[in-house]
Amino acid sequence: MPEKIDFDVVVIGLGPTGGTLANLLAMQGLSVCVLEREAALYNLPRAVHFDDEIMRVFQTIGIANRLRRHLIVNRGTKFLNPEGEVLIDWPRPRAVTENGWQPSYRFHQPDLERCLRRALAQYELVTITPHARTTNIKDHGDHVEICFAHAGEVANKVLRARYVVGCDGARSVTRSSMGVEMADLGFEQTWVVIDLVLTSSAVYLPDRTIQYCNPDRPATYCRNVGRRRRWEFAVGPDEQPEAMLVEAAIWDYLSPWISPEAARLERKAIYTFKSALAQQWLKGRVFIAGDAAHLMPPFMGQGMCAGIRDAANLAWKISFCVKHGHDDELARSYQREREQNVREYIETTSRMGEFINALGDAQIANTVFAKPDGTVSMNSIAPSLGTGLGDAADPLLNKTFPNITLADGSSFDQKFSMKPIIIASSAIVDLSDFTKRTTMDGKIITTDQLPELGPVLRQFGVAALLLRPDRRVLASCQDGANFEEFQATNRMLLS
């Protein structure tokens, strides 16, 4: 290791993925520098949806209560044919899920980014460097050297860090420095995205997302927070996207729904909706996450969510490598676990895009089903993680542990945030020296200590579980006879 390490981790990019990652790393006591290309927060809409799993991560960071003031609960999506008939209904129930939150939310991205930045401001070990353009990244084996320049400056500044994570988007400098290519997964289409703010309450618009499956003009309508509404229109093969951004053309496309007297134009943009996956997500001490690692069409609202899941998976692994000297196998598990989950989202979203373009059929997901009344509905998918850590033969490996409400009114995550712990039935706990020590350290929680955990263990059908810091099951123990071996096998994560 060189004489001077400036930071444990340098995060490149302060969007939702980078901001979440920096918070999770800082919570674990790591020193973090965030290099952000822009001078200030971008104050216009971009991402507009996240789900309960992501809200659970935001709860861990400590921004959920502040953020929820800026949210609405998403009621779901309907797919309509050109005649206005419902092809598929995708409702989003309002009941709280196992993650402790409602299944689907709409938000305004600047609100989220302000919450993330405000949370980062409380950590003395976090440095945010705006207007910083990364020019070079070099992995020296025991550390990484990052060169960057401030806008308008020629001279480079140099930082040294134990690890670097590029959360720097689809045109990732970090990914380029790794020499990694994106694998094209087959979906690519240009769309125009229009964001409006309503100025009249007299106009009626649906309170759900609507996918207009019309081969002549595929389109999407989104009900967003407050008075914000979004439309997206596919660009035809013989059309020029720039011509569609002319204001008169915009209002012409919007005329079936709304007139200029009822709303003001907030943002207009051209997007290429694309499915792609980086062939390598880490090389040595350099990682990529979010859009730098994967791209997907927006039809399921999972693009940003995938980046947040990357951050939650990677943060605790980097922390363990820095603080406990774990070998690289822990870090390498990142791509093995996350790639499978992302790929299923990308493939399902791409099929959804084909359906909206009237090119596919209703089998956009294995959760699509016919109801007794003849209508067609679908449920949300929940792709599993790939096997990176743990025993693939364990049927509970990588299952989500529920964020249950405890007797004192707090949630499980609030009490045990970012800690690896064993949840065990009191009946099997032999107070050996190791068990006594770990119990005192809060690393073993018994059903005597928290009776609310008993029903969860019974639901899983086990006597004990080892939970990772991201609240996934790493290992399970069927009965007390194997508990001592279970502890010894997993002592590394608990040490």
Low-confidence stretches: none
Number of strands: 25
The percent range for helix content is 25-40%
Strand fraction equals: 25-35%
End-to-end gap:
24 Å
Average predicted confidence as pLDDT: 91
The largest pleated sheet is described as: 8 strands, mixed
Can you identify the CATH class of the largest domain? Alpha Beta
| Assigned CATH architecture of the largest domain | 3-Layer(bba) Sandwich
Draw up the topology in text:
Blueprint: E1 7-12, H1 16-27, E2 32-35, E3 49-51, H2 52-61, H3 64-68, E4 72-73, E5 76-80, E6 86-91, E7 104-106, H4 109-120, E8 126-129, E9 132-139, E10 144-150, E11 157-166, H5 173-178, E12 182-198, E13 209-212, E14 219-223, E15 228-234, H6 241-244, H7 247-254, E16 263-278, E17 282-283, E18 286-288, E19 294-295, H8 303-324, H9 328-356, E20 368-370, E21 376-378, H10 412-415, E22 421-424, H11 433-440, E23 444-446, H12 453-460, E24 464-467, E25 473-477, H13 483-489, H14 491-494
Parallel strand pairs: 1-2, 1-11, 2-8, 5-13, 11-18, 22-23
Antiparallel strand pairs: 3-7, 4-7, 5-6, 9-10, 10-11, 12-15, 12-16, 13-14, 14-15, 16-19, 17-18, 20-21, 22-24, 24-25
Helix pairs in contact: 1-2, 1-4, 1-8, 8-9
